[in-house]
Amino acid sequence: MHIAAFSFLAVWFSGQYARTSYWRIAAGLLAFGILIELIQGTISYRTSEWMDLVGDAVGITAGLAIGLLGVGGWSVRVEERLSS
C-alpha cells in the first residue's frame, strides 16, 4: 500500500512541478514518510516499521520515473486545454 500511495503522490506532484524540482518532490515525500513512521511509533495501537520507508522510497522512485517518461507536467497540459 505504501508503494501505491507514494507512487500516486509522486505522479501527482510531477504533474505540478518542473523536472528540475523532482529532487525536491522526492525529498519532501520521503520526509513525509519518515514523519508518518515517527508519529505511528508514538501511538499505542500503531506500529512503526522502517520497511514501510523502503516501500515509500520505491513508490517515490516509481512515480517520478513515470513522470520522467512523459507523464510529468500533466496538470499543466490539462489546464492549457481547458483554458483554450
Integer tally of domains: 1
- Name the structural class: mainly alpha
Q: Assign a percent range to the helix content.
A: over 70%
The total of helices stands at 4
Low-confidence stretches at least 5 residues in length (pLDDT < 50)? Answer: none
Which outline best applies? elongated
SSE string, helices as H and strands as E = HHHH
State the separation between the terminal residues, measured CA to CA.
38 Å
Extended strand count: 0
Mean pLDDT: 94
Fraction of residues in β-strands: under 5%
Give the biggest sheet.
none
Integer-rounded radius of gyration: 15 Å
Strands, helices and their partners?
Layout (H helix, E strand, L loop, with lengths): L1 H15 L5 H20 L9 H21 L2 H10 L1
Architecture overview:
The chain is mainly α and 84 residues long. It has one domain. The chain contains 4 helices and no strands. It has helices spanning 2-16, 22-41, 51-71, 74-83. The longest helix is centred in the C-terminal third of the chain and has 21 residues, at 51-71. The relative contact order is 0.24.
Keywords summarizing the entry:
4 helices, 84 residues, mainly alpha, elongated, 79% helix
Short précis:
This protein has 84 residues and is an all-alpha fold. Helix content is 79%, strand content 0%.
